[in-house]
DNA sequence: ACCACAAATCTTGTATACAAGTTTTGAGTA
DNA sequence: TACTCAAAACTTGTATACAAGATTTGTGGT
C-alpha cells in the first residue's frame, strides 16, 4: 500500500470513529509535519477526502472535518432500504446453503461481541459484514461499494446511535429474523422488517439533543 | 466558475460525447499546453476525473480515457430500475398537478426534438431531464445526483445505443405511458414498464458487435 | 477605553525544478 | 537480418518557492 493510501486510510478511520470531531481544522502544513511528507501528495489525499464528503475545503481559508448531514443520512437509509428489500426478495428464492452458513456465522460472532469491552466497534464491523454479505450473495457487491463511497454521514450517525447498549441486542435480533424469514421464504414479512431495521431511529431527536455540535445546520 | 471547473467540464463533455474515445491518452504536459495552465491544477482535475471513472491513471505510465464497463452499466440500470419503481409508486399517490404539467412539457419538447438535426443530443438531454424531474418531484434529488456521479459508463453506453433512430420513438412512447399510468394510479402496470424501459437493451449484442474497441474486456 | 486601519501572519493555489519509473529508440554485435 | 542491452526520451510523482487571498494582530489616533 502506498504512503498516500495509508494516510488516507488513517484519516478516514479517525473521521469515521469521531476521533477527529466534525469542525476540526486539517491544515496542510500541520498534516505534512505529522506524516513527514510534502504538501503535494497530501493535497491529493485531501482532494479525495473532500470528494467523498469527509471534509469541506474552503479555498484559501482551510479544510474542516465535515459536520454530519442528516439529509444525507435519510437519503442513504432510503436508498438502502429500497435496495435491500429487493435483494432479500431475490435471495429468498436464490440463496444457496453455503450463503446461509456464512450469514449464520457472522451472527454468531455478533452475538459473542455484545459483551466484549469494545462491543460497539466490533458490532459495527459485523453489522457491515452482514449487510455486505447480503449484497455480495445477490451479485450486487458493486452497489454496496457505491453506497460505501457516500457513507461518511451515515456511518458517524449510526456510531453515535449505537452508544446506547440496548440498541445492540435489538439489531442482532432483527438480523436473526431477517435470515429466518429469508430461509423460510416469507417474503411478505421482510419488507416491513427491513424498513424498521434501517429506518427506525431517523426521526428520533436523540442526536440533535446530545450531539448538536456535530450536526450540520 | 473557476478555470479548473471549466477544464473539468470540457473534458467530461468530450469524454461523454465520445469525442475523446476510450483508450485515448491524456498526457499532463499536452493538456497543460492546450489549456495554458501548469501541471499542478491539471493534476487536480485528472485526479477527480479518475475518481469518477472518466479516466484510468496508471502511475508513471499515463492516463487513459476509460473503456466502457458493461458490468457497471448493468449495475446502474438495476439500481435505477429498483429506485424508479419505488419513486413511481410514491408519485402515483403524491404527484401534484404542477408536476404533471412539468413532465408533460418535457415530453412535448422531446417530441419536437426527434426530427431536429441534432436529435440524439437533444433527446438525451431531455431524457435525463424527464428522469431527473421524477426524482426531484419525489424528494430524491440527492439520489439522482449520487447516481450521476457514477454514470460515465452508462451515459456512453446509452449514447451508442441511441444512434439508431427508431429507438427515439420507442423511448418517447414509453415516457408517455409512464406518465399516463402514474396519473391514473395504475401502479401495477408501472413495474413492468420501468423494467422494460431501462433494462431492455442490456442483453443485446449490438455494442459488442459494433463498438468492440470501446468496451472493457 | 475604543475604534480604524494597516501590517504581519496565517491559509491554500500555482508554477516549476527535479526525482523516479517506464517505454522507446537505436547502436553495436553476432 | 535479428537480437541484446544500454542510453535517451518519454511518463507521472514529489518537494519547494512563491503568489494570492483571508484572518488576526497590534499600533496609532481619538
TrEMBL record, chains A, B:
Residues 1-68 form the HTH gntR-type domain. InterPro entries: GntR_C, TF_FadR/GntR_C, Tscrpt_reg_HTH_GntR, WH-like_DNA-bd_sf, WH_DNA-bd_sf. PROSITE patterns: HTH_GNTR. It holds the Pfam family FCD. Keywords: DNA-binding, Transcription, Transcription regulation. This is HTH-type transcriptional repressor RspR. It comes from Paenibacillus auburnensis.
Amino acid at each position: 500500500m502506498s504512503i498516500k493510501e495509508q494516510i488516507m486510510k488513517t484519516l478516514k478511520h479517525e473521521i469515521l470513529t469521531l476521533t477527529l470531531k466534525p469542525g476540526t481544522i486539517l491544515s496542510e502544513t500541520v498534516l505534512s509535519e505529522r506524516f513527514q511528507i510534502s504538501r503535494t501528495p497530501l493535497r491529493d489525499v485531501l482532494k479525495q477526502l473532500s470528494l467523498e464528503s469527509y471534509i469541506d475545503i474552503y479555498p484559501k481559508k482551510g479544510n474542516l472535518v465535515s459536520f454530519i448531514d442528516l439529509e444525507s443520512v435519510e437519503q442513504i437509509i432510503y436508498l438502502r432500504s429500497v435496495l435491500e428489500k429487493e435483494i432479500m426478495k431475490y435471495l429468498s428464492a436464490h440463496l444457496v446453503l453455503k450463503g446461509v452458513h456464512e450469514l449464520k456465522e457472522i451472527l454468531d460472532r455478533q452475538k459473542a461481541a455484545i459483551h466484549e469491552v469494545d462491543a460497539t466497534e466490533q458490532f459495527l464491523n459485523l453489522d457491515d459484514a452482514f449487510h455486505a454479505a447480503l449484497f455480495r450473495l445477490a451479485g450486487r457487491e458493486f452497489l454496496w461499494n457505491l453506497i460505501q463511497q457516500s457513507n461518511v454521514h451515515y456511518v458517524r450517525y449510526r456510531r453515535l446511535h449505537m452508544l446506547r447498549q440496548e440498541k445492540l441486542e435489538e439489531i442482532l435480533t432483527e438480523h436473526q429474523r431477517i435470515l429466518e424469514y429469508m430461509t423460510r421464504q416469507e417474503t411478505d414479512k421482510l419488507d416491513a422488517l427491513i424498513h424498521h431495521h434501517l429506518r427506525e431511529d431517523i426521526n428520533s431527536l436523540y442526536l440533535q439533543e446530545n450531539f448538536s455540535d456535530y450536526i450540520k445546520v
